[in-house]
Design brief:
Two copies of one chain form a homodimer. In chain A, 27% of the residues lie in helices and 27% in strands. Chain A has 586 residues and is an alpha/beta fold. In chain A, the strands form five sheets. Chain A has an eight-stranded parallel sheet. A six-stranded antiparallel sheet of chain A has the order 1-3-10-7-8-25. Chain A has a five-stranded mixed sheet with strand order 2-12-11-4-9, with no helix packed on it. In chain A, helix 4 packs across helix 5, helix 6 packs across helix 7 and helix 10 packs antiparallel against helix 11. The first copy, chain A, starts with 16 loop residues before the first helix and ends with a helix. The N terminus of chain A is likely disordered.
Chain lengths: 586, 586
């Protein structure tokens, strides 16, 4: 009845599917334009044949508009353990252009033994916009201040693709050798077909060695890549925590399980990292303050997410709950009185902080024990001031002295004993005695990289072998594994543009919607496999008393230590290739 | 672990009580300065005695710094029905200043009969900042664009007060004649005491007539003043819906019950009026969207508020639930998935609108029937476009055809039949046949004023008698009562400054924290009493066949009709006094 009337917001209630498909493609999509200088038409015209095909290297991100610098080979020889995944990259380039290109690999034969086609996948390597390291961490509001270029990274799932004239199309091949394969040389053929093209062929050979890599589930390497369910809901345009959302997440999270992922990332408060990613994390647990002043807790989402990850995906080692000490000390709860989400502003040490968290943690402990998850659950922190961490730990221990606590932050002698799982930055070390003591107590000690490191990293512009190097560095440095703070915190348009408002491009994700893997992700898995192989070989060589071989292996591994790469950025590919050659020769 | 760290917000968790008492006084407080031109010291010095006391008129807001223009009288004669409240105003003015002034009235005696002191209250009339009508409705971002002055309005509850030199202090007296008082003239004394002052006295006489006004509970007049519980929580600095909040509201809401208030104002959504008041209304009912897509509803707050108003305050005629068609068509719900309050943007007629409201209303009907409140509950609307109202009504009727619906808005022939309670603006009329039909069906038909009317109104600068006039206008215009959209939507500093960012000052409230009544509120109650007296007299005179007296009464009442005040603003005080003299002479 008040006289002024607001204009009625006629917002579109439902999103036009066609528009959304264009915005968030899952199937076919166009890459962004590569505007960098590249081989001109004349150079391309010098090609002897309209189209060429050759094996290339998985160490190289082939430029899209340049004639690839490859020594043309049609035969590739790989070595693999039983149960191991091995990658290969072929390169197709054409001055004429190709329509409806498809790639297939035959089954691989070794006499009557075969590695079936179902164990082999092929992928067009797609190009995504990246930038450069620049200042590493920090905001990048102005994208023009950084170099921008498209790089080969995405391993596409589409089965056909047109390849434009005067361009290069890399092809990725992945063979997951069955655990029950017989040792021996398996041979097959990669075939590239296209409209009006006589099929082009390459020979592929996998020499299966007589050693077996365990199932990822049984790997010892502690891999912790933080998942972001919120990004999946946004990109797939499905209601958060709906069946459609879980259906979308299942194959993505299976990729992590197959990579040896050990932890479930759970957010137990609103914006544990202050909403730094394109899709902020929200609380999977609701704290409800009733009008009589008592608290109740809704674990529906948390339970569903954890159950999904454990039972459907198979990641069930640890539930890391972020966080009691976020960067912004503002804690959400649903307030029955105001029918709003309200925030308590309190810092560790405050009475209000202890009340808010203490009351919750007591109930959380009870809930986790009911679910049988208590032993697998940790209250997880990022680096915060020591006094704040101490106060937080106090509150946790007061609520339930048996609560596990984890930290991804600097090494702190003062609190390390309290930390069931402590992940420290690249370059920091655990004292040897501490590491031994932690191991004996079943405590986990790993390292992480993030925006800080120019090398090694898994940005979209990083050398592919750096991903492998990163994984191996854990074994070399006596860490038990590796953590990265984001595996699918997608940018607004992750398939086409990996640049973000902060940090070097690709920092926030290494798997793509679809689900699609990436050169980075596959090379990281390769590194984790290498570490498992090193672990197995060490045990074997030690048991055999093969001291010289063991020494040789350890020396090669030791090259990946922080103190051994001082000075110039090493050639990750050379180091990795050298180590892998050794591993496969022992 | 991300490198940039936000500065920690060190917000004060608790509010310093001393500061808050100063900000939101409940006891003693200082008025704002009256900076208007006023009688100078020389004029004041001409006073014969240092301090004077006289009866004044309840029609006048005496200026604080002017010598009051009163014919000095020490004897006041009032007439009252048994059970009626009557008001009087005395004026104290002093050139010397007074310390610790207190006012008392003796019991009133009529032979051996008495009206006890407990039936009499005295109040210092306090000054509050006001502005002027200006453009009526609309924003007032710049207070300097309107006249600002302090006016007498607040009826204070403090028992002593200092009165500065050269100032006027009005004193309000209220006598609530007991229903069982014997008719006759009751006499007593008003005494003003102060430090170093010989007590000053005035005679007061109440002639109790041999007619009885029913208890407010039994009044027929339909009074609907919208309550704002949120303002009380803020001003009293108590947690919303806590026991302390209800304790604070109880005496305030009792004032309404004593005024014949009939409705409970309930907000069933976030910001039904787009947060137009200093304290926005929030949803007293939470709609919870679960991750499986189903809805659940939390009625805790609604139930507590309604139960309080019905059982503790005694207002139990109707629960008006605002609203299904707010100005901003954005509807809140608690979303279990995101652990956030989310909003659906949908307009009446949309599928999403029908789903959101239809699902809720079905459950609400079930809940109300369980509580035994269904017959007393209405889904209430403000004026909206006809098509929107029709669509909303359709959704309500589909959910439960027996749901009552109310509207405070224009008269609409098209939908009036659907409206159990229809309140139309001052100046609009119900067609006679419609009014008769509505009455026969037990439907309620009233009128309202708001920011639109320069006259009559209850702004802090309005003539006191306008409040009485406003109430009487309902009876004169054949409305069944009166609605005002706000009775305690307090400004930031309601005791000292009644100006608001929108509308003329005082538009948003007529009762003050404390609780304190106001000249406006008491004069409105006077008008409602007059209407009850007119109703009773009409029945009586009709039954007696006293045609001439009835005609005289009706003629006097008819003067208060809209069509009879065309042209100049009438003198509300003259009209009211004339009518009240007649009423008390019949």
């Amino acid at each position: 009845m008040r006289a002024f009337i607001l204009s009625i917001l006629l917002l579109c209630g439902t999103i036009c599917p066609a528009q959304q498909q264009d915005k968030y493609p899952l199937g076919e999509y166009e890459e962004l334009t590569d505007s960098k200088p590249h081989d001109d038409k004349e150079t391309w015209e010098e090609m002897g044949t309209p189209t060429s095909l050759s094996w290339g290297s998985t160490d190289i991100r082939y430029r899209k508009l340049d004639i690839p610098d490859v020594r043309k080979t049609t035969r590739l020889q790989l070595k693999a353990w039983k149960g191991e995944r091995v990658n290969a990259q072929a390169v197709l380039w054409t001055k004429a252009g190709l329509t409806d290109v498809s790639v297939s690999v035959s089954e691989l034969r070794n006499g009557s033994s075969i590695i079936p086609q179902s164990a082999i996948s092929t992928h067009f390597v797609r190009y995504v916009m990246t930038d450069e390291f620049g200042p590493g961490c920090g905001q990048r509001p102005d994208k023009t201040k950084f170099d921008s270029l498209v790089v080969a990274d995405v391993l596409d799932i589409n089965k056909t693709l047109d390849v434009k004239a005067c361009s290069t199309q890399p092809l990725w091949v992945k063979v997951w050798v069955p655990t029950d394969a017989k040792a021996g040389k398996y041979k097959g053929t990669l075939t590239v077909s296209a409209k009006d093209l006589k099929p082009m062929k390459l020979q592929i050979e996998v020499n299966v060695l007589n050693r077996t890599l365990p199932d990822p589930k049984d790997w010892v390497y502690y891999l912790d890549l933080w998942q972001n369910p919120y990004a999946v809901a946004r990109y797939y345009q499905v209601p958060l925590w709906s069946q459609a959302h879980f259906d979308a997440m299942r194959p993505l999270m299976k990729m992590l399980a197959d990579a040896g992922q050990r932890t479930i990332t759970a957010s137990i408060m609103h914006k544990p990292w202050n909403g730094q990613t394109e899709d902020h994390f929200d609380s999977m647990i609701t704290r409800i303050k009733k009008i009589d002043g008592t608290w109740s807790y809704d674990y529906t989402v948390f339970d569903k997410w954890v159950t999904f990850m454990m039972d459907e995906v198979g990641i069930d080692d640890m539930i890391c709950c972020y966080t009691m000490i976020p960067w912004a000390l503002s804690f959400d709860y649903y307030d029955q009185a105001t029918s709003r989400v309200q925030f308590i502003e309190a810092k560790p040490g405050d009475k209000a902080y202890a009340e808010y968290w203490g009351t919750f943690l007591k109930d959380f402990s009870r809930h986790l024990r009911t679910k049988g998850w208590f032993e697998k659950t940790a209250i997880s922190m990022d680096e915060r001031p020591m006094e704040a961490m101490r106060e937080a730990i106090k509150v946790v221990k007061e609520a339930d002295p048996e609560f596990k606590i984890t930290l991804a932050g600097n090494y702190h002698a003062e609190i390390q004993e309290d930390l069931h799982y402590l992940c420290i930055p690249f370059g920091q070390k655990f004292p040897d005695d501490v590491l031994a003591s932690r191991k004996s107590k079943g405590q986990i000690s790993t390292y992480y990289t993030c925006c800080t490191e120019a090398f090694p990293n898994t940005f979209t512009f990083s050398d592919p072998a750096e991903a492998t190097w990163t994984a191996i560095h854990a074994t070399a440095g006596n860490y038990e594994g590796y953590l990265r703070w984001a595996v699918n915190s997608w940018t607004a348009d992750p398939l086409r543009d990996s640049r973000f408002r902060t940090w070097p491009a690709g920092d926030t994700y290494s798997i793509y919607p679809g689900p699609r893997s990436s050169i980075r992700f596959e090379r990281l898995v390769e590194g984790v496999q290498d570490c498992e192989k090193i672990r197995i070989l060490r045990e074997e060589l030690e048991a055999e008393g093969a001291t010289r071989k063991l020494k040789k292996l350890n020396e090669e591994v030791a090259k990946f230590r922080f103190e051994n790469i001082d000075g110039n950025k090493p050639s990750a590919s050379e180091m990795v290739n050298s180590l892998e050659r050794l591993i496969n020769s022992l």
